[in-house]
Design a protein that fits this description.
Layout lengths: L1 H6 L5 H30 L1 H4 L3 E2 L2 H56 L5 E5 L2 E4 H20 L2 H18 E2 L3 H26 L3 H7 L2 E2 L1 H8 L11 E2 L4 E5 L15 E5 H9 L1
Helix pairs in contact: 2-6, 2-10, 4-5, 4-6, 4-7, 4-8, 5-6, 6-10
């Protein structure tokens, strides 16, 4: 009976919001991936950006994930600023990818003219695309400055959608093989890693906060307002919600103040 009462915890605002968000992201990612596949059929240049995994590449995913997990477990403080910079660049690209279809739809609905204004990396940019790119950069900059969990979730969701849209599994055999490998990967690192490494590797990495390179640079240059920039960041590799959702949460708060769900778990569901 006591265990049943504990299940009532799932009816609190934070768990319900986390579950609803995860389901919505799962369906949204699948919908965007299907639409992107149609876009690739019409535009061969887009298909070059997608990756179709063969058997060996699928097997390497849990191996490389394990190596990355151990690297972050032992050297997180040393590589956290580099990870933050890399994540910021990936977030700009992912957010642009997710918002582009909606902007294109609004442009067609209102009949807006959209002339080409520049070329970047052999790609032509229209005026609206340039404005969208600036908006994406501004969103990531706001996350770097504030570290707010809502911006973290927005960027994390966009990374999840972009990853699912660009990575393809060609057949059911490779899907099943990857599913088994990732299942073993999750079970080991969550439940058995403490026996070998003295701590729960998965939980330790998931709850660590990265040093903010923007704060480091602003502080070293003694720029005005540097004290307003958050020192630590939750990287957008998971969606997080404050346990006291209605009361809010302070940016840069302790990881135990948040409920979290890794993007990898949602990607696993989407693939299988």
């Amino acid at each position: 009976m006591e265990s049943l009462w504990k299940l009532l915890y799932l009816l609190e605002p934070a768990p319900i919001t986390l579950i609803v968000t995860a389901v919505a992201v799962t369906f949204g990612s699948a919908f965007r991936a299907l639409n992107y596949e149609k876009e690739m059929e019409r535009n061969r240049d887009l298909s070059e950006a997608s990756i179709t995994l063969d058997r060996s590449q699928a097997l390497m995913i849990p191996v490389m994930s394990s190596c990355s997990l151990l690297l972050m477990f032992y050297l997180f403080s040393s590589v956290s600023q580099l990870l933050t910079a890399f994540t910021a660049i990936a977030s700009v690209s992912s957010l642009f990818f997710c918002l582009s279809p909606h902007v294109a739809y609004l442009k067609s609905q209102f009949g807006l003219t959209d002339p080409y204004v520049s070329r970047c990396c052999s790609k032509s940019f229209t005026r609206i695309q340039a404005l969208l790119l600036l908006a994406c950069i501004g969103t990531v900059a706001a996350w770097l400055v504030s570290g707010h969990w809502i911006l973290n979730n927005l960027l994390g969701i966009s990374i999840c959608i972009a990853f699912v849209s660009h990575v393809r599994l060609p057949n059911i055999k490779i899907c099943a093989m990857l599913l088994v490998c990732l299942f073993v990967y999750d079970i080991f690192w969550v439940f058995f890693s403490e026996r070998f490494f003295g701590a729960n590797v998965m939980v330790s990495v998931a709850t660590q906060q990265a040093s903010n390179p923007v704060h480091t640079v602003a502080n070293s240059l003694s720029l005005p307002g540097s004290q307003l920039i958050t020192k630590k960041l939750e990287l957008p590799v998971k969606i997080v919600f404050p346990r006291d959702l209605l009361g809010g949460a302070v940016s840069g708060g302790n990881g135990s103040d948040f409920m979290m769900l890794g993007l990898g778990d949602m990607v696993d569901i989407l693939f299988f």
